[in-house]
Design brief:
The chain is 38% helix and 22% strand. The relative contact order is 0.18. By secondary structure, it is of the alpha+beta class. The chain has a 5-stranded mixed β-sheet, covered by helices on one side. The chain has 6 helices and 5 strands, in the order ααβαββαααββ.
Length: 146
Amino acid sequence: MDDLIRQSIRRFSTEFIRKHIQLSFKETGDVILSDEKWLVFVLEQILSNSLKYTNENGLISIYMKSKHVLVIEDTGIGISASDINRVFEKGYTGMNGRSDKTASGLGLYLCKNILDMLNHKIRIESNVGKGTRVILDLTHFEGRIE
């Protein structure tokens, strides 16, 4: 897991530096059953969103909540309660997306679909003005194995 997280962090290293955003990464030591390419895509999309919506001098934290449960948390602008239930819908950008003209509403939609195919779960907790916590349950759930 740590190698996948490091790959994702490296991709955005200049963005962390440019925006003066602090990174707190606690090595997980975790080993999971998943697909490297697609899980890195998901991690990068979540980090991209965190960086996009976290102001200068903010903080992004990556840590394990429990075995196989990864948390990516930021001190960004947060997501309103009225938008939180729709963020995984195709094309939905919510209030944050309307103010950011580059938002397509596809990133979290793709993440949810990819994680569903990998038999993993994603959940988001957020408070406007305080930040967002993305929780990835990477436990391999019984079901489809293709």
